[in-house]
Specification:
- Helix content is 56%, strand content 14%.
- By secondary structure, the protein is an alpha/beta fold.
């Protein structure tokens, strides 16, 4: 069993093509989502065209109802601080939300599933699995 954390890019791709899920998951994988990922998906639903807004909102609601959501607590904050120090030392800035997702993965010992591996490359203690 692998403990996975879906990032926003993976879930957006999965919304467009549910076969993406099949390609990366095993039956015994334990999956979760970071709370900040839900925020990013909600923004996407709120900004969607009228024609897509209902479907996108329903998709986010389905994720919230079926996938455990991991909060940003003390353990994630501690991991986030370590990651911020690491990226500053590397001289490779990262997106704030990507670092929050990475910190959540680190705090909960999970492998990130992402369409954008570059967002998490060279982060200490972070494993990434791509579906592409």
């Amino acid at each position: 069993m692998t403990r996975l954390l879906f990032d926003t890019t993976f879930l957006i791709d999965a919304e467009r093509n549910s076969d993406e899920l099949e390609a990366v998951l095993n039956d015994d994988d334990d999956v979760a989502v970071a709370a900040v990922t839900i925020a990013e998906l909600r923004v996407g639903a709120l900004l969607a065209s009228r024609g897509r807004q209902g479907a996108r909102t329903a998709y986010v609601n389905d994720i919230v109802a079926t996938v455990p959501i991991l909060g940003y607590g003390l353990e994630a904050a501690e991991a986030h601080a370590e990651l911020l120090v690491a990226v500053r030392a590397q001289g490779k800035p990262r997106g704030a939300h990507d670092l929050m997702i990475a910190a959540t993965a680190k705090a909960f010992s999970r492998t990130i599933v992402s369409a954008d591996e570059t967002a998490f490359v060279d982060l200490p203690g972070i494993e990434v699995r791509s579906h592409r």
